[in-house]
Specification:
The protein is about 15% helix and about 35% strand. The protein has about 250 residues and is α+β, with helices and mostly antiparallel strands. The chain has 2 domains: about 45 residues; about 200 residues, Distorted Sandwich (Glucose Permease (Domain IIA)). The strands form 4 sheets. It has an 8-stranded antiparallel β-sheet with strand order 11-7-8-9-13-5-4-15, with no helix packed on it. A 3-stranded antiparallel β-sheet has the order 3-16-14, with no helix packed on it. Helix 1 packs antiparallel against helix 2.
């Protein structure tokens, strides 16, 4: 099945074309000095890369919505569920991370809301409450609500989200992008079983954050078919290293 975003995220295509044009101009004018410009072109490509993933389709599995380092794991008051207690996992994305964001668990989008705000360093915990952000509420097949929050950072100034209330979404489905360094906060039910720890590096889609309560009629299986990350199915191939999660289950 054809992927909608092969190799390069659509959000970066204009940037890459512009960077290549500058590189070509630098080569014409500056010769060997243009290698510096081409190094910057490589960085642009690296930032906007959108590799295919292999999604764990076990019932109740919550995959990482972002690639980066886990900078927070704690029980916290969930401001998106009227202060109810939740398990909060925060993932910081630096400029070398894959910046496309994925749906952490399949279900139905209940709500989406954009919050204007500041642009503090996204590695700081205060960014969760004060920075510009976009929250998506997802009700899983088991009837549980998981909230995924894209947070702009010190340099990131644009959050893209392609889902809206009422959409049916699949685990690992690509739904958004944040440009130039940012953060994603994930709020899970308190009974969820986490399999990650503070300081760990996770790959979006490839790694599992934890397990929520599965639907009563769901079979705990791992899918193996290759699919488009934007389709409402659960697995996709990856060109990156596949993180092993079976040992943690």
């Amino acid at each position: 099945m054809k992927r909608e975003y092969p190799v390069l995220a659509r959000e970066g295509r204009v940037h890459l074309v512009a960077a290549v044009a500058v590189g070509a101009g630098a080569t014409w004018v500056g010769g060997y000095w243009s290698l510096i410009v081409w190094a910057l072109v490589a960085l642009v490509f690296n930032f906007f890369r959108d590799p295919r993933r292999r999604i764990d389709a076990r019932a109740g599995a919550v995959v990482s919505p972002a690639s980066g380092q886990i900078v927070g794991v704690a029980e916290a008051d969930n401001p998106y569920l009227d202060g109810a207690k939740s398990l909060k996992v925060s993932i910081f994305m630096n400029i070398f991370s894959v910046h496309s964001n994925l749906i952490p668990i399949g279900g139905t989008v209940e709500r989406c809301r954009h919050y204007p705000g500041k642009f503090f360093n996204a590695a700081l915990d205060k960014s969760s409450a004060h920075n510009e952000r976009n929250a998506v509420w997802i009700r899983s097949a088991a009837g549980e609500t998981v909230v995924c929050v894209q947070i702009a950072g010190l340099i990131a100034r644009r959050i893209v989200s392609s889902v809206q209330a009422g959409d049916a979404v699949a685990t690992g489905q690509r739904y958004g992008f944040i440009r130039f360094g940012s953060r994603v906060d994930l709020y899970l039910p308190t009974h969820a079983r986490l399999v990650v720890k503070l300081g760990q590096w996770v790959d979006s889609g490839n790694d599992v954050i934890g397990f929520c309560r599965p639907p009563t009629d769901a079979a705990a299986t791992v899918a193996t078919d290759t699919v488009d990350a934007t389709d409402t199915v659960a697995t996709v191939d990856t060109v990156d290293t596949v993180a092993t999660v079976a040992a943690a289950h």
